[in-house]
């Protein structure tokens, strides 16, 4: 039997409320399928660790993580105690960068049992491919001066290699879906990087004419998400645009608590990392009402990535059945607790 060595990082906030309780569901799924078992290795690296040690993870933290089949993470951030740029860049973004998890794949679709805030919210199904290694999230820049003359400069970095990689991945994905790729741009306002993005994505688009390709300015695209969400299949976007569009996708589904994500390493050198779209939700932490669906659906993406598609489908089926049954946390209109939703998914999985 295969054994999968998975690094488990609950992280902060609701990550700690959800992640540990999701693992037994996956163990049960593995037991039923009989072809694999999980070897969970927990790492409690988070803002508490930072306050004790002055860093978000040990100096050899990445070394320790490198030796796993995947990383299963909750969320990072405790903004009342540690500035976000320190906590996120010290753990989450550090792992994404150092492990070359260059793509962040974030599906969104209408789900039975959840009411979308959209008027036309019952028939959308799209995936955002977010460039995850560069773009607007760069460490290049700085601050200068004081008082009224104080300034800050932040440089965005775009490379041909990363743009081609993201658009090609979007194309591959679209080929197995509705054969449509939309690239998010803003070349009418950002005059160096975004025309570069447009040019390269159009070049990649020319390689495969079986896919419909469209460039849309991010402002119009955001509006279209609201008014005609069913017109999207695969959306490819820079790091910042993809970050924003995927919180929108989550909201369109009914709550950020249900949205999953995969940070993919595509060169096979390091593990990929699976974490839901949401953050640590400090406003609801410890109340037992955090929605675990996003973390569960994220687990489905991890299983799929590791080659256990059947287990992933089984899990997603159970998630959808529980939603349709109305076992829901308050963010999606229910009264169930985190634990009750997880128990319902566990029961739905069968034995
Ligand atoms: N990938 C990550 O680890 C991310 C971390 N963060 C960090 O998380 C902290 C909070 O950030 P926010 O901007 O407030 O975003 P957030 O995603 O944590 O919360 C936004 C809103 O969604 C709700 N929410 C989030 N997850 C939920 C769940 N599972 N069930 C029900 N409701 C849920 C929260 O209660 C809040 O009202 C910050 O430190 C931020 O930097 C934010 C986004 C992503
Ligand atoms: C940090 C953040 O907001 C994200 O990765 O989605
Ligand atoms: K997260
Ligand atoms: Mn985000």
From TrEMBL:
It catalyses: (R)-malate + NAD(+) = pyruvate + CO2 + NADH. The keyword Lyase applies. It is an enzyme of class 1 (oxidoreductase). SUPFAM superfamilies: Isocitrate/Isopropylmalate dehydrogenase-like (SSF53659). Pfam families: Iso_dh. Its EC number is 1.1.1.83. Gene3D superfamilies: Isopropylmalate Dehydrogenase (3.40.718.10). Residues 5-345 form the Isopropylmalate dehydrogenase-like domain. GO terms for molecular function: D-malate dehydrogenase (decarboxylating) (NAD+) activity; lyase activity; magnesium ion binding; NAD binding. InterPro entries: ICDH/IPMDH (IPR050501), IsoCit/isopropylmalate_DH_CS (IPR019818), IsoPropMal-DH-like_dom (IPR024084), TTC_DH (IPR011829). Its cofactor is Mn(2+); Mg(2+). Keywords: Lyase, Manganese, Metal-binding, NAD, Oxidoreductase. Belongs to the isocitrate and isopropylmalate dehydrogenases family. PANTHER family: D-MALATE DEHYDROGENASE [DECARBOXYLATING]. This is D-malate dehydrogenase (decarboxylating). It comes from Geomicrobium halophilum. The lineage of its organism: Bacteria, Bacillati, Bacillota, Bacilli, Bacillales.
């Amino acid at each position: 039997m295969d054994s999968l060595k998975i690094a488990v990082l609950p992280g902060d906030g609701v990550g700690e409320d959800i992640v540990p309780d999701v693992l037994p569901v996956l163990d049960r799924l593995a037991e039923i399928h009989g072809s694999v078992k999980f070897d969970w290795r927990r790492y409690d690296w988070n803002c508490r660790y930072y306050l004790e040690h002055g860093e978000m993870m040990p100096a050899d933290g990445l070394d320790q993580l490198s030796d796993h089949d995947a990383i299963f993470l909750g969320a990072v951030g405790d903004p009342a105690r540690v500035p976000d740029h320190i906590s996120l860049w010290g753990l989450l973004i550090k792992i994404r960068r150092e492990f070359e998890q260059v793509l962040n794949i974030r599906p969104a679709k209408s789900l039975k049992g959840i009411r979308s805030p959209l008027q036309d919210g019952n028939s959308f199904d799209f995936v955002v491919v977010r460039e995850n290694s560069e773009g607007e999230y760069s460490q290049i820049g700085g601050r200068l001066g004081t008082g009224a003359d104080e300034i800050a400069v932040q440089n965005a970095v775009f490379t041909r290699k990363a743009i081609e990689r993201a658009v090609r991945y979007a194309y591959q994905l679209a080929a197995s879906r509705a054969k449509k790729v939309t690239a998010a741009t803003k070349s009418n306002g950002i005059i160096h990087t975004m025309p570069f993005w447009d040019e390269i994505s159009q070049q990649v688009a020319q390689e495969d004419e079986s896919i419909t390709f469209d460039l849309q300015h991010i402002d119009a695209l955001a509006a279209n998400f609201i008014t005609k969400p069913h017109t999207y299949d695969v959306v490819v976007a820079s790091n910042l645009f993809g970050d924003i569009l995927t919180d929108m996708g989550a909201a369109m589904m009914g709550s950020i608590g249900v949205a999953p994500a995969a940070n993919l390493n595509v060169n096979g050198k390091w593990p990929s990392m699976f974490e839901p779209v949401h953050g640590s939700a400090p406003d609801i932490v410890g109340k037992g009402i955090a929605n675990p669906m996003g973390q569960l659906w994220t687990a489905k993406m991890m299983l799929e990535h590791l080659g256990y598609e059947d287990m992933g489908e089984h899990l997603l089926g159970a998630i959808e059945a529980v939603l349709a049954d109305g076992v829901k946390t308050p963010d999606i209109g229910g009264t169930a607790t985190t634990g009750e939703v997880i128990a319902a998914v566990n029961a739905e999985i069968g034995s």
